[in-house]
Specification:
Helix content is about 45%, strand content about 15%. The protein has a five-stranded parallel beta sheet, with helices on both faces. Strands 6-7-8-9 form a four-stranded antiparallel beta sheet. Strands 13-12-14 form a three-stranded mixed beta sheet, with helices on one face. Strand 12 and strand 13 form a beta hairpin. By secondary structure, it is of the alpha/beta class. Bound molecules: 5'-O-(N-(L-cysteinyl)-sulfamoyl)adenosine (5CA) and zinc ion. Zinc ion binds next to loops.
Length: about 400
């Protein structure tokens, strides 16, 4: 699949700091020191509805991770998937009486537009689950042939006991795992499974549902976790730097994915850090396609809201926190954008060298965006109150806010 156009990332004087980020697996901060090419996999959308502020907040967090790396003069190898065949997508297509392929294409196209408008850096590899199927089949066959997977009435399940490190991403207890598995696409109550938590790797063709040639597996379609793992291993290999997504993906998705990859390769860990963004809520409940309590990026854009203001609204919260979207959050961002733009539109101003370092320090500190915004606020206030004589300052502030925060002033 094609991704979306990249906005240019201005180079800043000096060099950024290495990222210290919270890793779900170790439960603490890790300092990431990637090689010259940092490797990141971020779980993509299931394209049955438009991009909402929760999605945007999560992609914003991983966009910042990349901007910090780029500022340390590294390259970034970024991979993202599209879950373009899965139960919720098929269910929505049936509900609305539309073709599931068309639905997925339309919503993916809208997602690309939203990401472009928000200046999110595009992945180098943007891969759909459907196009990944030829690579998924041999992985499932390997897992089955090595005894890490088994068949149940034609479906193939992964045996969680096959990975000695199973449980080391989420550290959840069995009861919670079982509960979340049932809630998030698993089938812990299906009779005949070796362990109720075992996730499906390959689902045998069902009447009225799309299916693909699965070689020795028979016709069917892939399970959710193996889809992301096949794409990640194909394009990044084991031991990549960051596996990213929202906190609702910690279990089962990222736990199972890591176990699939570790059982396949015998290597540990799949990723150096498992990074999770908090959940954005609306009216007190997690924003979710299934509940329908959504604020869409595309709707705000149609209403004439500047995408830079949407981005500032996202940045005003710490990425790991759960937070609530309100009109006030957006109003504050619109007002802040106006102040910043006025401040950089002057021909000169107070020196911004210290500000660039403050931004670097804040972002390298587990993406502390509220502190970063406060630093720019202070420069803008000083500019308004006293001005300054540094002719390079307004341009430097614009470039720094663009390069590090993805906001075009
Ligand atoms: N296709 C899978 C991942 S392989 C999926 O979870 N798709 S999704 O469309 O449901 O979500 C896309 C991303 O947005 C995921 O990282 C998910 O954790 C995140 N996300 C979904 N809802 C919210 C929310 N309310 N707040 C923050 N992030 C969210
Ligand atoms: Zn995923």
């Amino acid at each position: 699949m094609h991704a979306w156009p990249a906005s240019e990332v201005p180079a800043l004087p000096g060099k950024g700091r290495d990222l210290r980020i919270h890793d779900t697996a170790t439960g603490g901060r890790v300092t990431l020191a990637p090689g010259p090419v940092a490797r990141i996999y971020v779980c993509g959308i299931t394209p049955y509805d438009a991009t909402h502020m929760g999605h945007a907040a999560t992609y914003n967090a991983f966009d910042l991770v990349q901007r910090v790396w780029l500022d340390t003069k590294r390259q970034v190898h970024y991979v993202q998937n599209v879950t373009d065949v899965d139960d919720p997508l098929l269910e929505r297509a049936i509900r609305d009486g539309v073709d599931w392929v068309g639905l997925a294409e339309r919503e993916t196209a809208l997602f690309r537009e939203d990401m472009t408008a928000l200046r999110m850096l595009p992945p180098q590899h943007y891969i759909g689950a459907v196009e990944a199927i030829p690579g998924i089949v041999p992985l499932v066959e390997r897992l089955r042939d090595s005894g890490a997977a088994y068949e149940l009435d034609g479906d193939i399940y992964f045996s969680v006991e096959a990975d000695p490190h199973f449980g080391q991403v989420s550290h959840y207890d069995t009861e919670l795992m079982r509960h979340l598995s049932a809630e998030r696409g698993g089938d812990p109550d299906r009779p005949g499974k070796k362990n109720p938590l075992d996730p499906m790797l390959w689902m045998a063709a069902r009447e009225g549902e799309p299916s693909w040639d699965g070689g020795s597996l028979g016709a069917g379609r892939p399970g959710w976790h193996i889809e992301c793992v096949a794409i990640a291993l194909d394009h990044l290999g084991m031991g990549f730097d960051v596996q990213g997504g929202g906190s609702d993906l910690i279990f089962p998705h990222h736990e199972m994915g890591a176990s699939h990859a570790q059982a396949l390769t015998g290597e540990f860990p799949m990723a150096k850090a498992y990074v999770h963004a908090g959940m954005v809520a609306l009216h007190g409940e997690k924003m979710s396609k299934s509940k329908g309590n959504l604020v869409f990026v595309s709707k705000l854009r149609r209403d004439g809201v500047d995408p830079a203001a949407i981005r500032l609204a996202l940045l005003s919260h710490r990425y790991r926190d759960d937070w609530e979207w309100t009109d006030q959050v957006l109003e504050t961002a619109v007002e802040r954008l106006g102040r910043w733009r006025a401040a950089v539109s002057r021909p000169d101003g107070p020196s911004a060298d210290a500000l660039v370092e403050e931004l670097r320090e804040a972002l390298s500190d587990d993406l502390d965006t509220p502190t970063a915004l406060a630093a720019v606020d202070r420069w803008a206030e000083l500019q308004t109150a006293e001005g300054g004589e540094d002719e390079s300052a307004p341009g430097l502030v614009s470039r720094a806010v663009d390069a590090l925060l993805g906001v075009a002033l």
